[in-house]
Amino acid sequence: MSIPCRKAIVNNTEINVAPLETVSLRLLLQKDEGERIKLYSAARSLGFFYLDVSDSKPYLADVERLYSVTEQYFAQSEENLLKDFRMDDEFRGYKGGNNWGSLEILRDDVISSEVPLPDIIESDSATVQRFISASHEVSHVILGELSKSLWPDSEHHLEEKHHPKKRNNSSLKVYRGPTLENLADVRDNTHTDGGSLTLLYTDKWGTQVELPWNKEWAWVEAKPGHAIVTVGDTLQALTGGLLYSCRHRVSQPVGGFEERWAVTYFFRPENDTSLVPL
């Protein structure tokens, strides 16, 4: 089914804005059937949706604090940043390049305290722990409600591949990705997310999605008090394609330099999960 985009103007440039559904976390927690149906529809059609977390004030306060922590972290010299680089480790530490950078912190490492946080973030360890814990719980709420829609009369459920006590690579990942002066310098990075769910918090235009019904690209608008949720390849595989992992890319609608930060939570399955339909 084709859903029309709305138009928006960014610095005198007209853009198409993706028609993302908004799902309420509060109503999901109340087991509202209508909200569960809305969630399932969004996860099947576009695989991107807004999650309204505006009732979760302490959680949003932690998101705001993590924006500040991210800015402080990437204000360090390249020499200091490289101290957190982990060779041949996809899910830990600092990664960076010309005009961008990321820092990833595994949930399992925070729980076990086996891997220390970077020095500049250690003073905010409680914020990191709270955000990871709350984001993991939110992801399980989404997972549980999707399972009810997928298999209402079956023992199958997505949680059986996401046991909270088993080792997994779920993580907090923060980004610095400033916009570039010239649009022509923006490289194509089209991809799908490999995990189960991604919760993205940002306050800038930065994500484009490929609409499955016409293969055109549309922008995802950042909304205060909302996470942008992405269905990943793992859920698409475990459901035999019933849920949709959407192609998307990080870009910018207009030229011009501007700092841009993002806070994400990557919710991933148990390590060594076999990606075959349940």
UniProtKB/TrEMBL annotation:
A GO MF label: metal ion binding
Keyword Metal-binding: yes
Metal-binding listed as a keyword: yes
Pfam families associated with the record: 2OG-FeII_Oxy
Protein keywords: Iron, Metal-binding, Oxidoreductase
Cross-referenced InterPro entries: IPNS-like_FE2OG_OXY, IPNS-like_sf, Iron_ascorbate_oxido_reductase, Oxoglu/Fe-dep_dioxygenase_dom
Top-level lineage group: Eukaryota
Domain Fe2OG dioxygenase stretches: 167-269
Family, per entry: Belongs to the iron/ascorbate-dependent oxidoreductase family.
Annotated protein name in UniProt: Fe2OG dioxygenase domain-containing protein
